[in-house]
């Protein structure tokens, strides 16, 4: 491909190329012999010299004047500047090109309306994108992409039922908005079941109402406890509550557990369409460590490269489920967070719920479902991991090319239990006391100087490299400096003050 | 009796059902039928016979040995055509029963160091070859070349020059004026396109393109794509000559438009980007044809052809107006309006036509040649011109061609 573009470019004039007898053979048309041609050549040379002096194309002006007065000679031997010219980009501003009736060179042999020679470069008056056209183009792109998805994407996509346990706290807005936006981008039908600890609240309701998705918002009577262990247990109960809703409403689709602090990729929703009954995906674990130095020292001691730990199905060579990758909690033994306020690492469970998807028919009371699925009404007690829902863990289908693709990430970041935040993140009433901060590097009162002075001042202190620049710009503005002296002095003293603080 | 009828009726219905299911009801593609009918999948074997002249190797093999770059540049069709014909079932070793005669000359293989073919010796080479065949075999003189065909993939075909003015001055080589020319150049009402010529696509390497396919569910997110020169600063610094000002107009009007992904860079992901684009611009350069058309068709990107009066490859077999978008050079400033005003169902139909595998096959010259590829389309085109009208056969002693016409330098021996 590289060659072809270059080739096209060099196709026209290859006078630079290496030739032995080429030019002598081809260009001996006899044009050099006639006196008329010699005259044109001399004239051309002369006008070239004049153009050099004047700075614009003198020859064009001459030929324009000539063409209006003289008769027209044969098309191919005359200079091709006389060809149709609608040149808008003319060098001479007062060029009367538009007014001159353009001589139309007639092609001797054929009646083609396509003319060889110089043509004008047509530019429209406002060569910038038209917003209406841009919107139409985007609609076309959308239509083409939906068609592509219909043809090459998932056939017969099923509805996705998302179960999310949540509760009102400082970080809820952050986490829930992330999940909400991910779900809004999903191209399939969606039902979002939000189970809230501590009862239904306006906070959560207003947040999820912005999504425009079909939501089922239920409350759970217990409040979220402070210790991580208790929290995990309560979340499990809340998820079961969500599953019970699926059973009650006989929702049909694929159930996925989206914890509000997780990060989902769009490929996840495409991949889970492949599940038949019960599937598992790989979850990347982002266990943040409060004590970074210790971790680094430990890692240097170990031989293996520090990779992100992944939880999910493990396959053997024939792509059958062989076991499970879980998070190695040994390095964190004794150093993990117990309470939400701890500054230690928050650990995930052995197997996170968010890594499992199930067909909602498994939850229905009747209907044909495999016999290895336990009835969720019968289990109410402690379920350690989602594998307790099935009698035989080997029936789980590994998804995402057998667990090799990480499609979502687990992360637990929470504020302290007693942290406060304005309800619905609206500051009402407005804050009364404003404390001026003197740590800003710019002065409080905006200067009334022309804008070109500002960068001179701005780069005085921190960047030493640009001193030459400031010197030259200062020298140019000597005249202005006199009456600006006082102002600059004030400003520099202001600077010194701020830097001392 | 009535039972028999019922049985037959049921059988018919069942057959009809089965046929309708197995027929090309694929919603992704659509059948292509041009002005000559549904001819892309015709099999030329049995419809024509081609005799290949045995020329001394100085006309073909020795030239190729001197410069093997000829096998991979966009003019390589002449070499591959020769190789295909040598081993094809349409070849006959008996010239008496041949319908068409092929002369294997590699006229476009005299390359500069940068890889561009020089056409200055080609007229002499062709002339000397025809002198040879007319003296050694009687078939040329029988019709003065009317049942012979030549592959001339150069810029302006058999006019043998790269500058359009010089090429039109020369016109088609006088001794080739009765022969059928298989060429890449095509422009209506142009001297260098003869009435019965067959336009073919330029050679594009099929393996390279096949190797760089991306998954078809990658969403097409680029609206318009183009990579190439807008101004030829070496030969036409002011603009206006190159591409008749059309490429420069594209740049000046749309360089700030986010929908137009156009630039002069040479990205390594050129083929992949084409597969992510909806429209690919195919403007003219110094000559109206370019391999971009082939690449656009293979990658499913709708070609936007900006070249007035161009004749596209296999114009009678492929309905290009239904597949590509034609924009007049004077309408280039309104290109965005033209493209966005195409209704979406038309765009989807064009994409379906492009997705037809026979369309992609017809544009390529793969080795070994499967049925339906460009070689077979050329043979189909030749077969459609049969039978030769009686008028092409000259009476003994009758001469139409002027062997001494043309510039004096062409008459020198090669």
TrEMBL record, chain A:
| Annotated spans, Disordered | 442-501
Primary location recorded for the protein, binned into one broad class: Golgi
Membrane spanning residue stretches: 37-56
Q: Which GO terms describe its biological process?
A: cell wall organization; glucuronoxylan biosynthetic process; plant-type secondary cell wall biogenesis
Q: Which UniProt keywords apply?
A: Cell wall biogenesis/degradation, Glycoprotein, Glycosyltransferase, Golgi apparatus, Membrane, Signal-anchor, Transferase, Transmembrane, Transmembrane helix
Reply yes or no: does the keyword Membrane apply: yes
List the GO molecular function terms.
galactosylgalactosylxylosylprotein 3-beta-glucuronosyltransferase activity; xylosyltransferase activity
Q: Mind telling me which GO cellular component terms the entry cites?
A: Golgi membrane
Keyword Lyase applies: no
Q: Which SUPFAM superfamilies match?
A: Nucleotide-diphospho-sugar transferases
Q: According to Swiss-Prot or TrEMBL, what is its membrane topology?
A: Single-pass type II membrane protein
**Stretches with biased composition (Basic and acidic residues):** 482-494
Q: What is its EC number?
A: 2.4.-.-
Compartment(s) where it occurs, according to its Swiss-Prot or TrEMBL record: Golgi apparatus membrane
Q: Where is the composition biased (Basic residues)?
A: 466-481
Q: Give the protein's function.
A: Involved in the synthesis of glucuronoxylan hemicellulose in secondary cell walls.
Which PANTHER family did the record assign?
BETA-1,4-XYLOSYLTRANSFERASE IRX14H-RELATED, GALACTOSYLGALACTOSYLXYLOSYLPROTEIN 3-BETA-GLUCURONOSYLTRANSFERASE BETA-1,3-GLUCURONYLTRANSFERASE
Instruction: Report the family membership.
Output: Belongs to the glycosyltransferase 43 family.
Name of this protein:
Glycosyltransferases
Organism of provenance: Gossypium gossypioides
* Lineage summary: Eukaryota, Viridiplantae, Streptophyta, Embryophyta, Tracheophyta
From TrEMBL, chain B:
As for subcellular location, the record says:
Golgi apparatus membrane
Q: Does the keyword Glycoprotein apply?
A: no
Which protein family is named in the record?
Answer: Belongs to the glycosyltransferase 47 family.
Its organism's taxonomic lineage begins at: Eukaryota, Viridiplantae, Streptophyta, Embryophyta, Tracheophyta
Keywords assigned: Glycosyltransferase, Golgi apparatus, Signal, Signal-anchor, Transferase, Transmembrane
What species is given as this protein's source?
A: Gossypium gossypioides
**Record-level GO cellular component terms:** Golgi membrane
GO biological process terms, alphabetically, are:
glucuronoxylan biosynthetic process; plant-type secondary cell wall biogenesis
**Superkingdom per UniProt:** Eukaryota
Q: Tell whether Glycosyltransferase is among the UniProt keywords.
A: yes
A GO molecular function held by the record: glycosyltransferase activity
- Which intervals hold domain Exostosin GT47? 47-342
- Name of the protein described by the UniProt record: Exostosin GT47 domain-containing protein
């Amino acid at each position: 491909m590289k060659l072809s573009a270059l080739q096209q470019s060099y196709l026209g004039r290859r006078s630079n190329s290496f030739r032995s007898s080429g030019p002598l053979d081809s260009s001996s048309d006899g044009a050099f012999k006639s006196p008329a041609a010699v005259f044109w050549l001399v004239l051309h040379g002369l006008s070239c010299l004049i153009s050099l002096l004047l700075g614009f194309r003198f020859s064009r002006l001459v030929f324009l004047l000539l063409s209006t007065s003289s008769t027209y000679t044969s098309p191919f031997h005359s200079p091709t500047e006389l060809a149709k010219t609608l040149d808008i980009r003319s060098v001479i501003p007062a060029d009367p090109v538009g007014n001159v009736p353009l001589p139309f060179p007639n092609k001797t042999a054929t009646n083609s309306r396509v003319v060889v020679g110089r043509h004008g470069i047509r530019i429209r008056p406002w060569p910038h994108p038209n917003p209406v056209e841009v919107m139409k183009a985007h609609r076309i792109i959308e239509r083409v992409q939906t068609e592509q998805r219909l043809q090459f994407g998932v056939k017969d996509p099923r509805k996705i039922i998302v179960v999310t346990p949540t509760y009102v706290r400082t970080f809820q807005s952050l986490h829930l908005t992330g999940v909400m936006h991910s779900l809004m981008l999903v191209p399939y039908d969606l039902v979002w079941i939000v189970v809230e600890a501590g009862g239904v609240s306006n906070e959560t309701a207003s947040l999820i109402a912005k999504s425009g998705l079909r939501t089922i918002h239920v409350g759970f009577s217990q409040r979220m406890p402070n210790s991580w262990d208790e929290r995990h247990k309560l979340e499990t109960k809340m998820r079961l509550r969500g599953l019970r809703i699926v059973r009650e409403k006989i929702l049909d689709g694929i159930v996925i557990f989206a914890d509000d602090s997780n990060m989902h990729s769009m490929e996840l929703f495409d991949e889970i369409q492949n599940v038949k009954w019960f599937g598992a995906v790989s979850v990347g674990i982002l266990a943040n460590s409060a004590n970074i130095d210790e971790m680094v020292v430990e890692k240097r001691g170990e031989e293996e490269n520090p990779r992100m730990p992944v939880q999910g199905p493990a396959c053997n060579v024939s792509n059958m489920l062989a076991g499970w990758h879980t998070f190695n909690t040994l390095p964190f033994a004794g150093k993990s967070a117990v309470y939400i306020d701890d500054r230690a690492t928050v650990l995930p469970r052995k197997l996170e719920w968010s890594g499992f998807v199930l067909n909602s028919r498994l939850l229905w009371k009747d209907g044909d479902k495999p016999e290895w699925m336990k009835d969720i009404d019968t289990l109410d007690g402690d379920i350690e991991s989602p594998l307790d829902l099935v009698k035989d863990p080997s029936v789980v289908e590994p998804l995402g090319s057998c667990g090799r693709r990480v499609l979502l990430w687990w992360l637990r970041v929470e504020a302290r239990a007693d942290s406060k935040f304005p309800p619905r993140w609206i500051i009402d009433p407005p804050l009364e006391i404003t404390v001026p901060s003197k740590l800003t590097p710019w002065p409080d009162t905006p200067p009334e100087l022309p804008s070109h002075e500002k960068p001179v001042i701005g780069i005085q202190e921190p960047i030493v490299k640009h001193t030459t620049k400031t010197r030259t710009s200062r020298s140019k503005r000597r005249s202005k400096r006199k009456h600006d002296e006082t102002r600059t002095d004030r400003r520099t003293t202001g600077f010194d003050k701020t830097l001392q603080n | 009796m009535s039972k028999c009828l019922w049985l037959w009726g049921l059988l018919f219905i069942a057959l009809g059902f089965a046929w309708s299911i197995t027929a090309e009801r694929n919603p992704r593609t659509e059948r292509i039928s041009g002005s000559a009918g549904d001819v892309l999948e015709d099999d030329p074997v049995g419809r024509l016979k081609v005799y290949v002249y045995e020329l001394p190797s100085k006309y073909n093999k020795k030239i190729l040995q001197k410069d093997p770059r000829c096998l991979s540049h966009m003019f390589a069709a002449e070499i591959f055509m020769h190789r295909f014909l040598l081993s094809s079932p349409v070849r006959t070793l008996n010239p008496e029963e041949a319908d068409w005669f092929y002369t294997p000359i590699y006229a476009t293989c005299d390359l500069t160091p940068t890889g561009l073919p020089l056409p200055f010796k080609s007229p002499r080479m062709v002339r000397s070859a025809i002198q040879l065949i007319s003296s050694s075999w009687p078939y040329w003189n029988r019709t003065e070349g009317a049942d012979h065909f030549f592959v001339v993939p150069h810029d302006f075909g058999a006019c043998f020059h790269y500058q359009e003015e010089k090429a039109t001055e020369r016109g088609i080589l006088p001794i080739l004026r009765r022969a059928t020319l298989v060429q890449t150049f095509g422009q209506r009402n142009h001297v260098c396109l003869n009435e019965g010529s067959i336009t073919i696509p330029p050679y594009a390497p099929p393996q390279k393109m096949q190797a760089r396919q991306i998954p078809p569910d990658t969403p097409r997110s680029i609206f318009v794509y183009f990579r190439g020169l807008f101004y030829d600063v070496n030969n036409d610094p002011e603009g206006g000559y190159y591409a008749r000002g059309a490429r420069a107009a594209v740049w000046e009007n749309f360089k700030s438009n986010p929908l137009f992904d156009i630039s002069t860079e040479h990205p390594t992901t050129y083929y992949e980007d084409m597969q992510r684009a909806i429209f690919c611009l195919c403007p003219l350069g110094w000559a109206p044809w370019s391999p971009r058309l082939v690449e656009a068709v293979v990658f499913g990107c709708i070609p936007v052809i900006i070249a007035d009066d161009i004749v596209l490859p296999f114009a009678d077999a492929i309905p290009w107006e239904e597949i590509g978008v034609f924009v007049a050079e004077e309408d280039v400033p309104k290109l965005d309006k033209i493209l966005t005003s195409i209704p979406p169902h038309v765009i989807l139909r064009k994409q379906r036509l492009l997705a037809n595998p026979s369309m992609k096959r017809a544009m390529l010259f793969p080795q070994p040649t499967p049925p339906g590829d460009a070689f077979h389309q050329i043979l189909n085109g030749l077969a459609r011109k049969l039978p030769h009208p009686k008028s092409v056969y000259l009476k003994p002693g009758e001469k139409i061609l002027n062997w001494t016409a043309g510039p004096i330098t062409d008459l020198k021996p090669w």
